[in-house]
Design goal:
The chain contains 1 helix and 13 strands, in the order H-E-E-E-E-E-E-E-E-E-E-E-E-E. It has about 240 residues and is mainly β.
């Protein structure tokens, strides 16, 4: 089966439906009990129209507390280029819940609940939540997430916004795998923005896991994203690396 025959329907499906920051990544539903990790993420967006590029990075530590719950705390930083140094932006508490046994049903189901406290108190508290879906066809792994986000205790009124994440990966050599990622946001969940104001990005991605022995490994994934709508950044690069132990 050719790559485009699988990738195209997935991208089209999710384009019909994140508020993705430069360093955001695609969540997956699986949880590994007892796993500990140190997680580093970096991303940069080229906004175009003469605006400065926006970059962000974060570092976190996570733990598989149970067979169905993984929790992680992040410190997040951002900066604009050229000329600006990075500065602390927020802390974030991410919680992922695995709701079905991996591979038992046609679709694996998880749930995300994320709490962020920005440094800027006028932004209040941000809560993000939504289902995480994953399925496989032979060596192809497909992920799709629908996420809702809202800010509470803010200076100005806040709506509940809708976003999506999508990923297609060909599971071949564990150390280097290839695929596609897509991120998008449509605005208020019950009243989408006009299409020229929505944000949709998609592009090629690579993935890998490098075993280090003694239950240790380094995992990575990276993507080069192209804006496919007027409201999206022109280009974006994102990278995530995890040290598991």
């Amino acid at each position: 089966m050719k790559l485009h025959s699988i990738v195209a329907p997935v991208i089209l499906f999710f384009s019909a439906t994140t508020f993705a920051g430069p360093a955001d990544y695609v969540y997956t539903p699986a949880v590994e009990y007892g796993e500990r990790e140190i997680d580093f993420k970096f991303g940069s967006q080229r906004l175009g129209d003469g605006n400065p590029d926006l970059s962000a990075w974060s570092v976190g530590i996570g733990y598989g507390a149970t067979e169905w719950w993984f929790t992680e705390i992040y410190a997040k930083y951002k900066f604009k280029t050229p000329g600006n140094s990075s500065h602390y932006d927020a802390w974030e508490w991410e919680n992922k819940f695995q709701l079905t046994e991996t591979g038992k049903y046609p679709v694996d189901l998880g749930f995300l609940l994320e709490l962020e406290h920005p440094k800027d108190r006028s932004e209040g508290w941000e809560i993000k939540w939504g289902p995480l879906l994953q399925t496989e066809f032979g060596k192809w792994q497909l992920n799709g997430n629908l996420l809702l986000k809202r800010n509470y205790r803010v200076d100005s009124p806040s709506d509940t916004e809708l976003a999506y994440q999508a990923q297609v990966k060909y599971r071949g050599n564990q150390q280097l795998e290839f695929g596609v990622q897509a991120f998008g946001a449509v605005g208020k969940w019950s009243n989408w923005q006009p299409s020229n104001q929505q944000s949709h990005q998609a592009g090629p991605a690579i993935f890998g896991k490098l075993p280090l022995g003694n239950h240790q490994a380094i995992k990575y994934n990276a993507a080069w994203l192209i804006g496919v709508s007027q409201g999206a950044p022109d280009q974006a690069f994102r990278l995530q690396t995890e040290y598991e132990f």
